[in-house]
Design brief:
Layout: H1 3-12, E1 17-23, H2 26-40, H3 48-51, E2 52-56, H4 62-70, E3 79-84, H5 93-107, E4 112-117, H6 133-141, E5 143-147, H7 152-165, H8 172-182, H9 186-202, H10 210-216, H11 227-233, H12 237-249, H13 254-276, H14 281-288, H15 292-305, H16 307-326, H17 331-342
Parallel strand pairs: 1-4, 1-5, 2-3, 3-4
């Protein structure tokens, strides 16, 4: 579903029905959710607390949602119902049927808007030619909007508009320099742009320069692909927490992160087994088809940890994965707890 429909519904004040805001760009999801709130339950409206329902959980309580949809607004024209952190990757047939019933019921109540902000990575939108199965099903009865990360050229225009809105000039060079220094995370760029605006104004100027960016902007290199794995190998709890926080900002799928953590110790177990068999270290990388540098790192860590500890860490990962699937706890919190246990010395 195109973002244009959501923009039109907000502009024309025709917002209603069931919406799913998904994708990797959390900044834009929060931005448009804020606009939906401003339309349905404007700040300062005395009845707003009665007409703004917010719920959360990996498993959706469709019975509760249906009841809220059927309950009319209190002394107001509109009502907004939000459900956060739904795990749409686990939708069973009965969940799909319940979702469809919710959408059909919502059509009978145009004064009510329901919006889902699911867990990162769910539902998988796939591609325009081959959409994901769950995403395709949801799109039949609800309005699904996917917020993909902005391209560098889009970010440049977005930053320039922020500067212009504050009465400060910033050419393409300034915007490119900010992206090079701060990365492409829109949350970070928004904060750094405000900082730049304040800095330029404090100097009595009306135009920002690349030198201003160098002087003011915080360096935030793009997340390291192996940051989490390396932190676990080094038993660096602080580094693991930083990597998980960056993944959370990027709305990384928790199950993917869990699998990444498990993979570290599975590979260590394989390396340890080969060392026990007497396979020369120079051959282990070839046997496992592992890059030479990674093989050396895993061999060193396997020798340092010992097989008994590696097996204990594998068991911790299995237990954490089973627990995450059985409970409705915040999956990112579960990952933090697991990382702390894995890095314990």
């Amino acid at each position: 579903m195109s973002l244009d429909k959501l923009k039109s519904a907000l502009k024309d004040r025709t917002l209603c029905g069931v919406w799913v805001l998904c994708g990797e760009e959390s900044y834009l999801i929060r931005h448009y959710l804020g606009r939906m709130r401003a339309l349905c339950v404007p700040e300062g409206d005395a009845a707003a607390p009665f007409n703004h329902v917010r719920m959360e959980g990996a498993e959706v309580d469709y019975a509760a949602l249906l009841e809220d949809v059927r309950t009319p607004p209190v002394f107001a024209e509109r009502k907004l119902i939000e459900w956060h952190q739904a795990d749409f990757s686990r939708m069973r047939e009965r969940d799909r049927a319940s979702f469809d019933r919710l959408c059909e019921e919502a059509k009978q109540h145009p004064e009510v808007t329901v919006v889902f902000v699911p867990l990162a990575g769910t539902p998988d939108p796939g591609t325009p030619k081959k959409p994901g199965a769950v995403f395709s099903h949801l799109s039949r009865t609800a309005d699904c909007v996917v917020f993909d990360p902005a391209s560098e050229s889009q970010l440049q225009g977005w930053i320039a508009r922020h500067f212009a809105g504050a009465g400060v000039q910033a050419d393409g060079g300034v915007c490119r320099r900010m992206i090079a220094l701060c990365g492409k995370n829109m949350d970070i760029l928004a904060g750094e742009t405000e900082k730049m605006i304040a800095y330029v104004r404090a100097g009595g100027r009306s135009a920002a320069t690349e030198e201003d960016a160098d002087a003011v902007c915080a360096r935030n290199p793009q997340s390291d692909t192996y940051g989490l794995s390396n932190a676990l190998l080094e038993r660096d709890a602080a580094g693991a927490f930083r990597a998980l926080e960056q993944a959370r900002r990027n709305r990384a799928e928790p199950t993917v992160l869990m699998a990444q953590m498990y993979r570290v110790y599975a590979d260590l177990s394989r390396v340890s087994a080969l060392l026990t068999q007497g396979i020369p270290p120079a051959e282990i990388g070839k046997v496992l088809r592992m890059h030479e540098y990674r093989a050396k790192l895993y061999i060193r860590c396997a020798r340092s940890m010992g097989d008994a500890r590696i097996q204990r860490m594998l068991q911790l990962c299995r237990e954490a994965d089973r627990s995450a699937k059985r409970t409705r706890a915040n999956p990112y919190t579960s990952l933090d707890i697991l990382a702390a246990a894995l890095c314990e010395r």
